[in-house]
Design a protein that fits this description.
The protein is α/β, with parallel strands linked by helices and 233 residues long. The protein has ten helices and six strands, in the order H-H-H-H-E-H-H-E-H-H-E-H-E-H-E-E. It has a three-stranded parallel β-sheet. Strands 4-6-5 form a three-stranded mixed β-sheet. Helix 1 (4-10) packs antiparallel against helix 2. It is globular, with a radius of gyration of 17 Å.
Length: 233
């Protein structure tokens, strides 16, 4: 968590409007916002859950948004997995929160991130040294969802079968709810994530010539033909 005031307003009964949520976010905005003390406490509580211990011991790859609050959360919740080095802990630009307008969605240069988080690979999946995604305008929901879809296609091509993905509520929401029929998530899988929530999910895909299982990898350039199905385990 990096903005407790805005998060509390969104989780109130009734919740605030999206416009009010954005107003509160803007008032408390900060470049690549760090985790607050509350956010760190939430991370520590998540790390104490049995599921966190299971994932930390068995996961083959941790993929994180390159925003500092996500990277810090990954290290808090999965300390063993993220300590394995750059082969097992990587950042991916497509996992960033909805970009633009708010400075908290703007990432640091690769060199600065590498100095801050030396055990994470920022070279492979951050295509530019500086942030070229962020603009003064808020990214559209469609663009955010398409980044999520692009990430799923990248993930499906990886050899690992057990992967931890650390990202943001907005990105997950658009990726899991706005891309039917290319991304079909169950009700349990597509509900909005709360802060530091751990959710164990399965993913299968169908592509050109592929089957309804993880043994058939989408080919490069095949993204538009790949359908993903996600559910909670």
């Amino acid at each position: 968590m990096h903005n407790p005031r805005a998060e509390a307003a969104r989780e109130a009964d009734p919740p605030c409007s999206f416009d009010e949520f954005l107003r509160l976010m803007k008032e408390d905005d900060a470049f690549d916002a760090e985790l607050t003390e509350l956010g760190r406490e939430q991370g520590k509580r998540a790390a104490a859950l049995p599921l966190a211990a299971q994932v930390d011991a068995s996961v083959q790859l941790v993929v994180s948004s390159p925003l500092s609050r996500a990277l810090d959360t990954a290290k808090l919740v999965l300390p063993t997995a993220t300590a394995k080095g750059k082969v097992a802990f990587v950042a991916h630009d497509d996992l960033r929160e909805r970009s633009g307008w708010l400075l908290n969605a703007k990432r640091r240069p690769r060199a600065e991130l590498a100095a801050k988080f030396p055990g994470c690979d920022f070279e492979t999946n951050l295509p530019t040294e500086d942030d070229t995604l962020w603009t003064d305008e808020l990214e559209t929901e469609e663009s955010t969802a398409e980044r999520g879809y692009r990430f799923l296609c990248w993930l499906a091509r990886r050899p690992e079968m057990d992967v931890a993905v650390v990202a943001h509520g907005g990105l997950f929401h658009y990726m899991l709810n706005s891309l039917r029929p290319r991304v079909v998530a169950s009700d349990a899988a597509s509900r909005r994530f709360v802060n530091t929530e751990l959710r164990s999910m399965s993913m299968v895909w169908i592509g050109d010539g592929g089957g309804d299982d993880a043994s058939s990898k989408p080919a490069e350039g095949e993204n538009v033909h790949t359908v993903f199905k996600l559910d909670v385990l």
